[in-house]
Amino acid sequence: MNVTGVNETDECPSYTCPERSVSTAVYVLLYVCAAAVVLLTVCGNLLIIISVCHFKQLHTPTNMLILSLAVSDCLVGLLVMPLALMWMIESCWILSIVFCLCYISISSFLTTTSIYNVALIAVDRYFALSNPFLYAETVSLRSMCTVVLSVWFVLLFYNLALQYFCGLFSGLCPGQGFTALDEVWSLLDLLLTFVFPFAVIMILYTLVFIIAKRHATAIRDLKIQTQTETLKSTADSMKSERKAAKVLGILVSVFLGCLFPYFIYTVLGNVIEIEMGSFQKVLLLVYLNSSINPVIYALFYPWFRRCVRLTLTLQIFNTDSSLMNVLS
């Protein structure tokens, strides 16, 4: 997904930022709020990264995908959101062309990576629920790490190639800042960075919830028929998988809700002229998803709340703290 403006220019015209229409107090408040959002995004996702990396109990294939998503979200908060919020508050691009290039490149890469991380989570949940025995035999921590790293490298190459062949490394203006992809590349980018992963997410999560409903019926039947230890263990395992699918379904739904308006604007931008102010608001919604994800984990994952408590109280520096039980 590439951050593109609404106008395409061949040369950089002289450009002066408009005078501020708000008072100094409001102006300062906007920057304070922007700093708070950036801090929430970076710290929230950093806590997820520390939790998954430190506690050995959390070293599972699914959590590697959550870790990958947290890394991309943390980098969005650290490298992308400060520039984007400054651009929106100032109502123009006040930094140099170098920062403009970095903003476009990094934003495109990290947002696309987040989309594919969510698609991989959907694939992982479907596979784990539809064929749990095969999943346990074939999906290991190492294989999942290999898949995640491969996706990061492929998407990095794709974004660099797209920007190089579309000429986005030249002709950018510090004032107006962004150019648009031509129709062919715009359609290709839309298909590869949204339509394809969106279709994968929707189809697989539909199947996941069908399987989860089937599991719920099976659990109820098991409880009615027998209370033996083996079947009780099986029922608990199915219930745990169903709960994980439900929570990740909430995460995916919020993610798609944040991204969908942007891609609507992207499609409309090839047909009608869109005001930059409206485009900025939709783009901000995409970035705010990186702030929302840690809140979702805090609300629905008890293990994350325990990990945060252990991290903030510095207990992770104790001997053998990585072996602590954070799941029960």
TrEMBL record:
Transmembrane portions of the chain: 28-53, 65-87, 93-123, 144-170, 190-212, 247-264, 284-304
Q: What SUPFAM superfamilies does UniProt report for this protein, alphabetically?
A: Family A G protein-coupled receptor-like (SSF81321)
Q: Where in the cell is it found?
A: Cell membrane
How does this protein lie in the membrane? Multi-pass membrane protein
State one Pfam family annotation. Answer: 7tm_1
Superkingdom of origin: Eukaryota
Q: Name one GO molecular function term.
A: trace-amine receptor activity
PROSITE patterns noted in UniProt: G_PROTEIN_RECEP_F1_1, G_PROTEIN_RECEP_F1_2
Q: Does the keyword Glycoprotein apply?
A: yes
- Would the keyword Cytoplasm be found if you checked this record's keyword annotation? no
Q: Which PANTHER family match?
A: HISTAMINE RECEPTOR-RELATED G-PROTEIN COUPLED RECEPTOR, TRACE AMINE ASSOCIATED RECEPTOR 19P-RELATED
Q: What is this protein called?
A: G-protein coupled receptors family 1 profile domain-containing protein
